[in-house]
Amino acid sequence: MLLELIIALSLSPSLAQQQEEEEPLPEPVMAALEDLDKSFRSRLDFAIIASIGRAKEVDHPEVVARIAGVLDHRKPAVRRTAVGALAEMELDEARLALEQYWRTGKRLAIDPDLADRTLRAIGRHGHADSFEIFSDVAWMREDGEPVPIELLRTKVRGLARIREPRSVDRLVELFVEVPVERHEDLRLDFRLALLVLTGEDSDSITWWQRWLERLPEDYGVPEGLPDLATADRLDWLTYWGLPPEAEMDEDLRDRRERHRGRR
Questions:
Q1: Which of 87, 134, 201, 203 has its CA 20 to 30 A from that of 23?
Q2: In whole angstroms, what is the distance from residue 155 CA to residue 176 CA?
Q3: What are the φ/ψ torsions at residue 164 (nearest 5 degrees)?
Q4: CA distances, 179 to each of 150, 198, 253 (Å)
């Protein structure tokens, strides 16, 4: 047994050999990291903001980690820039960093704007694993004050970024539960969220309850956005900072392109 262990160890590469065999980071990544580190050392807000703006174009886990390191920066402008950058970066590490910050960020409780930006950034990624974040809705804060309407609005709309039946179910549940004093503030957000998911258009709680009751248990949600009215589509995509053609159903996109070609 001892002999077998000695042979195994002798055949295994040493730590130094493993490090030598690791491929170096690509040049754009190294440049982005050096740029970020230089700006961090300068402690100049404008330099940090500018370097984050450049680095967000380099999708790499190391770059994500560097940017995530300033999410709780002392200056609001730097925090907002970091959140915005992670919203735009397509790597799943960016979403995970935002979700971790949502759960542990010290400044979120005292900075409602930052909290809403962080929640929107997570929603922009539209990942199924974010469902619990958006489905967990409290109408009042622990101190007895109402939850800011902006956060509630983003929670409602964020559920519709997860195109699954459970999002529809939860939205209808929340529409029923919403306090009377918040109903009018959120009525159109529920309408748009459910419209985006189902293609059905109503702002009536009763209508949605009856609609859901008629569906089979194994109903599905279409993959792409329905053919929304221009105002609704603009509202939806602008809210998440998405481009005009984002998440459009392929058949719908083809029809629109053919329509443009005939004009």
A1: 87
A2: 15
A3: -140, 155
A4: 15, 24, 39
Tokens standing for residue 101: 């910050």
> 105: Cβ–Cβ under 8 A, 6 or more apart, which residues?
71, 72, 114, 118
- Cβ contact 237:246 at 8 Å: yes
Q: How far is CA 66 from CA 37, 63, 213, in A?
A: 8, 5, 48
**Mean pLDDT to the nearest integer, 127-156:** 95
What are 100's two structure tokens?
Answer: 């971790």
Residues 223 and 143 placed together within one structural domain of the fold? yes
Distance (Å, whole) CA 104 – CA 37: 24
- 150: which 2 tokens? 């902006």
What would the pLDDT profile of 204-247 be if each residue is shown by its tens digit? 999 999 999 998 888 899 988 999 999 999 999 999 998 876 65
* 50 shares its domain with 90: yes
Residue 157 makes CB contacts below 8 A (sequence gap 6+) with: 123, 189, 192, 193, 236, 239, 240
The H-or-E segment that residue 174 falls in is helix 165-177
- What DSSP designation does 108 have? G
Question: Looking at residue 8, what is its pLDDT?
Answer: 44
pTM reported for the whole predicted model: 0.84
Q: Does the structure show a pLDDT above 50 at 256? A: no
| Calpha distance 173→150 (Å, rounded) | 19
DSSP result, 22-75: SPPPPHHHHHHHHHHHHHHHHT-HHHHHHHHHHHTTS--HHHHHHHHTTTT-SS
Boundaries of domain holding 139 = 126-242
| Same domain, residue pair 73 and 154 | no
Question: Does residue 70 belong to any structural domain of this protein?
Answer: yes
Structurally, how many domains does the chain consist of? 2
Indicate whether 70 and 139 sit together in one domain: no
